[in-house]
């Protein structure tokens, strides 16, 4: 099928030469408008604001001198209780964004009034395939249509006027545990979308669909399939030579393109970031070794055909969930006295990379957080200089953890300072090979015995668990000089899981923190100039825009995501967080205030504990295998997810119907019938009853920490000692 084309390089040159007046604000967004985004600074028309994904706005009405006068203009309650990760689009005074379960919402930018919302009738039962919460990172707009990817693998085009569906295409095999959380991009009339599922067992790819009718135009697979079958293109035949000993294709191999992309209209190159391997354990996935292309790589493609142009692999033979799906930014830097067009990334593995974006040549790389898996990057070969990190020989305590030195939260690049601002973290993990690994369709298949290192005894004090977890994790906004490859300053966020960043022409960087602060920071010095209590952790990314000449800053507030779900106790430090997902918007002298947070109810009396210690131990183990990813270690997790320590009598009575029968699947709680036996479910229930009694005792002030320690078994004491040793190791590494 033919499609309209646009000579982008000529268009960009003409726009610059003619110095056209700002485009009229409308939903007829095309390549010229995205390239020329600075001509309409009052709008935010693409995910990263422009094709370079800078997340820099030249707006400066809110600046260093007056940001202390910033106040809440309005807020909109969204009625959601899960993670909100999206970057809103703002066009002609209307904010368009995604919520939980891929819902799309349009809001009036002056008042916060909801204009329309569409839940897209997604299959919520596929929440069981979401590694990292039922989140979505945003939309794309092109020639009068909005585009969104859904958790059940669809790409949907919507009418921006009323949110009605124009076309709806399935992009995945529903028999595999695929999902979509990333924002689409549009290049020359092609809607580009990848997918997730690398932890469960899928084969990654990116696809292009015609924006007019949704017809698929091309697909690029990021890892090879079964070598006994024809390869989809010649480069995959070459890539297959870097995999050995499989069969990786039975599990899928991984390599999902679940987040970042960027586009260079001058070179007409599309850049994608590729994810981790499936399983994480490379010795299971590819026992004969090899680089396993194109895992953890930046790949340049021809956007017209999807054909491979070049790649750079950040972590050859990826074996730690060190994805390269993190934010990609295009810029011009002076390298060795000459201007170079570069692409920059701070992937999970802890190194900041600067590449020539025409050829993929490595120009520089330095670690931006403590790294123990490699000593550095060999500039001759472009490969990491690895340390002794073979977890087959025993557990390896390593920086970074699978959460990465930087995860999906977008960076921003300031044209004024020349710095990149990274939502970074210092967090380690014990990598331990899983013995007797067997592939389980539709469930986590990482090949790591993660459960051993997060299982804690049911009687261990909740406050102690929370304090130790918080002490072992650090998060901060990091100002990084990409030319000198060095840190300039860091602003502690008080949490390892925070929002994306926004740079502005007012000399500011805006972000949100896991402890519930919206912040404005001096881009040059790192001094915090303003903050606002959002009442719960923030992971959405801020944007700025104007209406009638007045500048606004908006950000979504809703705690969740990978770390927020699995380790909420260690990150959200608010004692009484709100459970209301919101869109907050600020302006100078904004008069608004948030309503007071209602205190949570006391824990109801749990059923009598009748299980023996063996059953409790089994329930502890099973809980931290099946349930921890949503409900957190020891059921201390996301404040907006059901607290399983405080179940009411009806929930206790219906426990098997919920856990095995899936009676709450439409609320995002999948059934585990066929995966978990009745006896196993009963053991988990007994463990949760034990936690409920402990929580009730804590609230009533009964039982001292010493009394609980006396009840601990040898194994529990050993667990505490292990945590202490890990913490000391963290201190040692953090000081380097």
How would you summarize this macromolecular structure in one to three sentences?
With 736 residues, the chain is α+β, with helices and mostly antiparallel strands.
Give an overview in words.
This protein is α+β, with helices and mostly antiparallel strands. Among the domains are: 8-39, no CATH class; 613-734, Cytochrome c-like domain (Cytochrome Bc1 Complex, Chain D, domain 2, Orthogonal Bundle), CATH 1.10.760. Helices cover 18% and strands 26% of the residues. The chain has 15 helices and 39 strands. The strands form eleven sheets. The chain has a five-stranded mixed beta sheet with strand order 1-33-34-35-36, with no helix packed on it. Strands 2-39-38-37 form a four-stranded antiparallel beta sheet, with no helix packed on it. A four-stranded antiparallel beta sheet has the order 3-4-5-6, with no helix packed on it. Helix 9 (613-626) crosses helix 13. It is globular. It starts with 7 loop residues before the first helix and ends with a helix. Mean pLDDT is 87; it is low at 1-25, 464-468 and 703-736.
Per-chain topology:
Blueprint: H1 8-18, H2 31-35, E1 56-57, E2 70-77, E3 89-91, E4 94-98, E5 104-108, E6 114-118, E7 140-142, E8 145-149, E9 154-158, E10 165-170, E11 185-187, E12 190-193, E13 205-210, E14 216-221, H3 234-240, H4 248-251, E15 253-254, E16 261-264, E17 269-273, E18 277-278, H5 282-285, E19 297-301, E20 308-313, E21 328-335, E22 338-345, E23 351-356, E24 362-367, E25 374-377, E26 384-386, E27 396-398, E28 412-413, E29 420-426, E30 429-431, H6 451-454, H7 462-471, E31 474-481, E32 486-492, E33 502-504, E34 508-512, E35 517-522, E36 528-533, E37 543-547, E38 550-557, H8 561-566, E39 582-588, H9 613-626, H10 628-631, H11 649-653, H12 655-659, H13 678-700, H14 705-711, H15 714-734
Parallel strand pairs: 1-33
Antiparallel strand pairs: 2-39, 3-4, 4-5, 5-6, 7-8, 8-9, 9-10, 11-12, 12-13, 13-14, 15-18, 16-17, 17-19, 19-20, 21-22, 22-23, 23-24, 25-26, 27-30, 28-29, 29-31, 31-32, 33-34, 34-35, 35-36, 37-38, 38-39
Helix pairs in contact: 9-13
